[in-house]
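In the previous lecture we treated proteins in isolation. Real proteins rarely work alone, and many bind small molecules. This record shows how such a complex is specified: first the sequence, then the SMILES for zinc ion.
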Amino acid sequence: MMPFEKCPVCGGELEEKKVEKLLRGGSHIAVLRVHAEVCLHCGERLYAEDTVRFFEQIRNKLRRQELSDFQPMGQSFTLDENSPNKANEADVRTSRG
Ligand SMILES: [Zn+2]
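The predicted 3D structure, ligand included, written as tokens:
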């Protein structure tokens, strides 16, 4: 049973959905697919207590580099804050050929 019947933020209807949750621990990131109650109005996600505890375990494992349970998903990348503009310019150039 979820602790909420309505969204605690806006009072909207909740619907159970599978969502992708990104967890960070140290320099590692794990993406999990979990059930959450998602507000149909504002998009707020509510997780069951067990799920929140599970997130905490995952974060701790990532922090401690206990990675044997995880499957690699490809590399993670980041950009500095100026790069999105540069990347867009490059896209425009390539799309024009
Ligand atoms: Zn809401």
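Summary for your notes: The mean pLDDT is 88. The domain at 14-96 is CATH 3.10.20 (Ubiquitin-like (UB roll)).
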